[in-house]
Give the backbone structure.
Amino acid sequence: MSDEADANRVAGWFGDCYGRQPEGVWQAPGRANLIGEHTDYNQGWVLPFALDRGVLVAAACRHDGMLVIRSRQAPGEPATLPLATVAPGRVTGWAAYPAGVAWALREAGHPVGGASLAIDSTLPQGAGLSSSAALECAVALALTGLYGLDVPRPDLAILARRAENDFVGVPSGIMDQSASLLCQASHALLLDCRSGEGSAVPLEPAAAGLALLIVDTGARHALGDGRYALRRGECDQAAGELGVRCLRDVADAAAADGLADPVLRRRARHVVTENHRVTQAAAMLRAGGLAGAGALLSASHTSLRDDFEVSWPEADTTVDAALEAGALGARMMGGGLGGSGIALGPPAPDAVRAAIGGRYAPLGRPAPGVLAPPPPPRRRRLPGARRPCAGRGRGGSEALLGVDGQERSRTAERQLPHAAWPARRARQDRRRPAGKHGVRAPPADRRALDGGARRPPSGARLDAHPDYVALGLRAGAQSPR
Ligand code: GLA
């Protein structure tokens, strides 16, 4: 993303739509995942990193209690919703994602009021790059920024995920929202989805003489089509039959052999071995050995294809072509059955690109889109801190810098009272609706992250890091269109 140009573009569009300047522009990135697939909801480990593309939200407060949402990707009439009546099942389609975030924030006791939003995205939809999570996270940053609510980022990720699980009805894990909100420039995020403990792991392929290619295979995926939920159910069943709370608790893949059902055996084997691959890959990155992680990527693909059975023909073709052309490793990425792949390639990735394109031509398919993502640059926090709407903020808005680069103010961080969480979760649980895709998301106290501790241990707090990729980009009042 080119911060200023993108922020100015969406701010300009906001002006066209609403006839006024936005009070700020916030952005959250999409994510790729180096390794660690279908491990998050099994309370395991993941290693995602932020992309240089994402979702931007220009926003301003409204004092009529309405949430008005426009999206450049959904031209037409805006969604106009009285906030007080926004509830699961009452909003459908794309607007359910931003509306769900407002609902989740209010359910958690954050006094979010009306807002006008103008949303734009630089991410392809359905490509498995977390466009939905980026949308949720950008809206979460915008609403908390507008209303001066300093919700710690790990908590914001949980609330954004709650919007997706309980409002939209998609039973996803915590990886995507955590990646969008917690990833730092030039680093992957090693996240323990049980404890919530996260750490930034250096990821600078160019410095290692390598390149990471993200390949949009063109086959679209949808987490809500039931197959993702089916895999979740199979994992839960496998864990139950192995006598553990979840598959994270199985350390040795040989234990999975004890499962009578061959399908459950394969599912469990994937999760157990994938967890090992994630921690090995993180150790290699820390030791400056990114190249060595290539073999782990390829092993992950084999496991996802043969044991977890979520690969798809275009992904297999992409992986084969990339490896034949000299990539050090490649795999499908994300939930699967459509979406994108990732290849760890040599510094001149053109041969890998050409090889992949060459494999698609005989299939009568256009060459897939290939992103060679530079790790997102360190971003200066842009435009100036603003007063919370109507003086309702209890903390301060995200620290923002002016377009002139001057930091204007940074208000004290307000922490959610920890003691309030269990009671709040119990309340949320009682209200928890059935998921619309046939799976009831696990109870809230089991999925604070993915079933683990309710809050990250204090030593692992990542919510005040200056290098976040997701942040406020621009304050409308301070920059002409
Ligand atoms: C999707 C979900 C994530 C995760 C991945 C698979 O992206 O949103 O929570 O489960 O699939 O690793």
